[in-house]
What we know:
Elements: H1 3-32, H2 34-41, H3 48-66, H4 75-89, H5 92-113, E1 122-123, E2 126-130, H6 132-144, E3 159-164, H7 165-171, H8 175-181, H9 184-199, H10 203-234, H11 239-250, H12 253-273, E4 279-281, E5 287-289
Antiparallel strand pairs: 1-2, 2-3, 4-5
Amino acid sequence: MSRTGIATVLALLGCLLAGPAVAACTLDHQVTDQDRYVQAVTPIAADPAVRQELADRVTDAIAAKLTPGDLRLPDRVQQALHSGVTKFVDSDDFRSGWVSANRTVQPEVVTMLRGEQSSLRIVDDTVVLDLGVVSDRVKARLVADDVPFADRLPHVDAYVPLFSRPAIRQAIPSFALVQDLSAILPIVAAALIVAGLALSARRRRTLIAAGAGLAVSGLAVLVYQWISRSQLISRSQSPELTRAFYEAFTGNLPVLLWVLLGAGLVAVLVGVVVRPKSTATNPHGRNVQGA
């Protein structure tokens, strides 16, 4: 293989590794850094769709505890209960509790993603969010509002299903390996690209190949992320919560991948459009072949 061929292969390999490298760094920094993780999941508590889903599920859990069997609460009581739960979920008290709970659970999320034994509550292989404290706070709020049945509300273990453990492991596969490679993979990718461009005797051709590889790498990870996100949400019992948590896990990864894709296309365009001079004129007026 020629020098240019070897250089092109090196640059192309480096560019193909760029997408996984960006994904590895983003996931590692987003999930394993506790402050960054908490900062990412805090806005979930302010998402109207998530608040509505939480209020509905907690209301259903309390109502089921109050009405054994197939009985259901009278509509007036159900509405008052739902209103009380909604007020609490919309309160600053809930949001502060949400931040505290997620800060506590973050190390367990990392442990679960690494495939190690975790103390996260798992029911039927589904990771659930424990909102049991909500029922006690709702009871206190309803009592304060003089709702007639409020003092008879029992404590309820309100568990909201987030996602199945196999599904999240499929959506973010081999997290332990990703975490281990997050530091070295970007360096290897950058070194291969630089080495390829430096060694190539025809850098324009190498630049086109590298740009194409960069675009393909970014697009491939984008497509995989979109498919895994869709499957994870579709298999969840709490789709809004699952969507919010998955987006918190991945952070700004989609933006970075689009930047990677765009950079690859620009590199291809530069390689195609910018052509070296093919001829030059010697002092005797004859054209000679350029480099």
